Amino acid sequence: MRLAGFPRIRVANLPTPLEELRRFRQAIGGPRLFMKRDDNTGLALGGNKARKLEYLMADALEKQCDVVITTGGPQSNHARMVAALARQLGMEVILLLTGEEPKDWRGNLLLDHILGAQVIFAGTKDYDIVHPRMEAMAEELRRQGRRPYVIPVGGATPLGSLGYVQAILELMGQATDRGVNFDYIVSATGSGGTMSGMLVGARIFAPNLKVVGISVSRDRVSLTQRLCSISEAAASLLGVELKFPAEEIDVFDQYIGEAYGIPTPEGLEAIKLLAKTEGILLDPVYTGKAMAGYIDLVKKGYFPEKANLVFFHTGGAPALFAMEEYFR
Description:
This protein is of the alpha/beta class and 328 residues long. It is built from eleven helices and ten strands.
């Protein structure tokens, strides 16, 4: 297993804290619950993408790239963190964001502007259109003598997912220090890179650890296909032959709501409940919906009462400042 052999730049504040949510558990019931605070990774207000970017941007440096191109929604945490790290490394950054330009530049979009990113709106939410446009932009830059590096939505590549293979190894060390054996991980999943790394890391370092994903954007069938593909390719990068049958991947897609990026009433209630019991802020796009899913699964008896569970907080709080109307 060659995890230590990959180029990696250390930009995240690691290890992130592991905190037990006692008051929150009292409010909802269920198994013993911990939170892995990947909202505290640092890098322009933190989030899970910092772990992926340690590998992706190391690759960009190895290739002597001078401009990074990536995509995401207008409130993309990934875009914000790519912009921050590109600036830290002396690179220019182009963000081809989905949809139309909003009237107000708030939340992550405001931070993209402050970080000096070139922001372009694609006029579509279809990544099958957006990704080829990024490649075309990169080709035009090459003709101009530039050296672009293209990162797909969410940094969801086999190389990027190695950040969450490393995260599982980190978590297992913390579990040993705390004297806890974890049975489940629950995490929001969108583009699939984070959960893919978790699946590979769990298979290698903790075979009895079950990873449960709460989808925030994709239906279960398309998401599991994507998770299988990225996970198997990531394992192959590490020199390990692993198979991830779709029927063995636990993903729930009934908590998405109207669409990606649009808060749900249950997600908003989960955000407020965690804030009032633990003083921790979730976000309305990813972790709020994931926590709403977790609460519902607890109510349905999905998790054994004596299990030990970790909820991965993947960050995203800046999006709260773009969604005031939902909380009024």
